[in-house]
Amino acid sequence: MAKTGVLLSNIGSPKSYSVSDVKNYLNTFLMDPDIIKLPFVFRWPLVHGIIVPRRAPYSAGNYKKIWLEGEGSPLTVYTQRFSEKLQEQLGSDYLVKIGMRYSDPSIDNALKDFKAAGVERVLIVPLYPQYAEATTGSTVKEVRRVAKHLKISFDFEVLPPFFDDNAFIDPSVRMMNESLTGQSVDHYLFSFHGLPEEQIKQVEGCLVTPDCCVQKNACAKNCYRAQCFATAGTIAKRLGLQSSQWTLAFQSRLGRAEWLKPSTDSILEKLAKEGKKNIAVICPSFVADCLETLEEIGIGGKEQFQEHGGENYFLIPCLNADPEWTANFASLIKGSKTKEAELKSLS
Description:
about 350 residues; alpha/beta; Rossmann fold; four-stranded parallel sheet; 8 strands
């Protein structure tokens, strides 16, 4: 009998790249109050009446560009492969299940599987290196809501953000070095998923000044922006880069609100116009390749860079089911159990 359930959760994907399936997915995703922070009475007509009808056909076309024929969405496929390898690494004391936040495999079915297997302790593992209320926070709330709805009682714990943990940093650095072997790189761009500034400002003391997020202990407050800077800075240092050799930016803006800056598209244009001909782009807020990395950055970003005079554009793959990453993550999970035992022994 497995002693610990490991619930891997990411944002999820539509069932197919058909417009109807993309509409269903976007409706579920955008109706989350942690994504669009408006009262339901305003959020529902905005999502169902304006955003989704306009966005779904465009998004469906983009999903089609990166869909793995015969397999499915890259995010779902790579997460499944990661799950299988992680199960091998963890062994029979653990039961690994995927519970996507807005799609299948669902959190509902994962919790039912844990109950059927006799699991009592569940480690919630949001597959986001940096903490954000719209990702990790929303996931944890949904898991607890589903468990209450199903009347299932587990001893829940949450894996902390791993934005600067060597388990994540080591394979990221190795992946960059391997991907760029023999290549000449003028500049490195770290592109993180963006968030509305108002969400960052909900953490007291965050986004007060341009450099507040790079101050000592800034990321201890679970400030997403600070943790992004910590990730990029740690990887850049390990690569031996000077501050002039790399830039941090934020992608995937949605709506008219002020989002974190600088934007990735503006930086790509700026680098090209400055005469940077060869750039490397890494997306370290994602552990699995998906629409945002493969289409938005891999296809759209490359086109934009080259349209403004850039030449060679090297997109670094996400960690996906990399063996070193999988082994490291298994150790991270086992370490969380060890820390729990140590805390109990001291109580």
